[in-house]
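Record type: ASSEMBLY
Status: queued
Input:
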Amino acid sequence: MPDSVLRVLTCGSVDDGKSTLIGRLLFECGTIPDDVMAALERDSIRFGTVEGATDYALLVDGLEAEREQGVTIDVAYRFFETPARRFILADTPGHQQYTRNMVTGASTADLAILLIDARKGILPQTRRHAAIASLLGIKQVVLAVNKMDLVNFDQSVFRAIEQDFRNIMPKLRFNRVTGIPLCARDGDNVTTRSPRTPWYQGAPLLNALEIADSTIEESGAFRLPVQYVNRPDHNFRGYAGTIASGRIRPGDSLFNAAAQTEAKVARIVTMDGDLQVAGAGDPVTLVLDREIDISRGDVLAADPQPKPADNLEAWVVWMDETPLFRGRAYLLMLGTSTVVATVTDITTRLDMETLEETTVRELALNEIGRVSISLTHPIICESYETNRDLGGFILIDRLTKGTVGAGMVTASRVRNSDIVWHRLDVDKAARSEMKHQKPAVLWFTGLSGAGKSTIANQVEKRLHALGRHTMILDGDNVRHGLNRDLGFSEADRVENIRRIAEVAKLFVDAGLIVIISFISPYRAERMMARDRVAEDEFLEIFIDTPIDECRRRDPKGLYVKADSGQIRNFTGVDAPYEEPLDPEIRLRTLEGSADDLAEVVVADLRRRGIIG
Amino acid sequence: MLYSIGKDSTVLLHIARKAFYPARLPFPLLHIDTKWKFRAMIEFRDSVAQRYGLDLRIHTNPDGLRDNINPFDHGGAYTQIMKTDALKQALTQGNYDFAIGGARRDEERSRAKERIFSMRAPGHAWDPKRQRPELWHLYNGQLGPGETLRVFPLSNWTERDVWTYIAAENIDVVPLYFAAIRPTVKRDGQLIVVDDDRMRFEPGEKPVDRMVRFRSLGCYPLSAAVESNATNLEELLAEMADTRMSERAGRLIDQDEGSSMERKKREGYF
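Status: finished
Output:
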């Protein structure tokens, strides 16, 4: 069995004949067993698009839905080998809405086959796929100009397409591009050079794949992202993971950069006995010569030591229907660490037509842009160019738990390393003790007209009467000053809440009981505000009033305007309100007066020990 | 970890033991026992569990057992009740959030598109259109309410990789994978090995001794053998290099319709 493995990505526009080409490769390499071939002949009659002939695409278009539609909708992995090499091939979709699947296939590929229909030439989709392949660090490309039979194997058509691609090359970071004229259906230039293209002197496709470079073993300094701390008993403590780069031997010095601690490697443990050396890609368990504090997510590193960073510059491919907004928080997974991350800025989007960058404020599904990200805890990372394992990350939605974005680090640093966080002698505890209270955020959320401001006002009056120190922030009032520059789009609402959350945090540090009265319609933003303060300092208070009742009350006449279209993006009318799933306090305004409900809140604060 | 006793499960278990060495596996093994597995499989299972000190849990669908659901009388319903339903019962009862299995992408068309970390909605259903993108070696293991994950670490292995690894690591497998003289009957061109006296014979049918082995193991009345002279790993690898039939060709439940596996997976089949 050949040892060398090449991971290949195939991409192209719909109907370029991608699945046919792959089916053909599998067939030519003798990978198709007899019973599968027999099933294929049957299926070709039933579903086939090639009249009277075997439709090789049916070998790879696995799922029912796509066989009905005749397009590939997901990424599929195929395996074949020649005497020279084994291949893992990721077949990815052409449709724009499935670009995220192409990114998935590209993330682990060594080489990309870009399928082009000879009749159509370079399409916007081709440029998009080339850009993604380049961004994800693929260095080798085969430009597979297919359906040459439909242009009579005309050399000038092929050369023109090659030239068009060469024109966009300066904007891409490929090392090697190989153009091959093909007719996948008939097998021209797939495994042997075709007599129908005597003018083509290059290698046929399979041969080109056999001689391509597989990704070079990560060179560079030793890095082990710790996946698991193995402690079966008191006598053994090992750090397990897959080596991301470099080599290690017993006796070598390693640092845990996050904790600034150092130790030497005592043993490299495997079930088959200790190793004398291990390198990139090896799964190992390291035992150190002394106990230092290490947990999952830490990186054991040799010199030069990596620096922890809590501020990243990165390319992000957005993969979710809900756009990416500045200010929203996600989980970021990089190496073996998972931290809360906030996108603090979206600077540019890569225009797929021109491969130029344009200024934007949000990223929609399948868009690629440059962003700045701020993390709640520093992590060890490197640029994606240096190390894919420590430079690639995913973003996870904190509510749906879905993977919504993929990113590649271009730069990282410790936030405002010039602006040192000044340690102050008088702290939050000292300030609040003097006031005989525990600081807290009372976050009132609910529809417009639900009664938030009325009840919040009553609560503050009571606390004031009890001699407590409070501060109230009201949605409408803040928009007259601090947030005067913001409108009501989803992106602006996110930023609105981000600023309020930061202000609330400052007041909590001042030792105050902060009362926030904002519609704050999105769970993600309320969660983000909650994260700004300690766990027991945040009380979400849901003012639960049915929308019909709010509309009936309509104290500011806003529902009338929204219903008639004079106001757009009005929560509950043409913008969503996401109800709290598990609020600390739920107040049903149909079941009690504002006075009664305010008393409920005060009683709850007493019970929690926020006021004595 | 789902443990089916077959070669893929055997490799998976071996790799897991290596990953956690010198500690024991930090998770239990679950075997869905339909009560129709080959006797040699059950013997092998119990000896492996004992040898490595594994926390082995065994589940059989009690309803199916009560109603005497069997592969001879109940056809497709048998697979649904004794395998799919039984698995769902066991996963639900055990409150398992992650189930690790040995499925490979090269086995079958719909498996080729499944993620390594594959989401299951509440009720264990798989929706091929709502799969999470899976990039680099980053696996999103976050779960929403009621969601569970099936994890397939051997996704990118081929049948040949599995056997090459078994040979390289010198791992014990169920002896049924090697050729021996076994009592067989031929039905619709498939060879069924008579494993116990519950076998139902057609009128005039008599077991015939043939030199056979299995490429894929399951319930004995549903697993077809192939004629073979490969009695050890070396001969088996040589045989595989010339074989012209796919591995699951011997699995009788897969063949009714091209998409039957996808349909079964949507319903919760592993």
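Annotation: The first strand of chain A starts at residue 5 and ends at 12.
Annotation: The CA atoms of residues 560 and 566 of chain A lie 9 Å apart.
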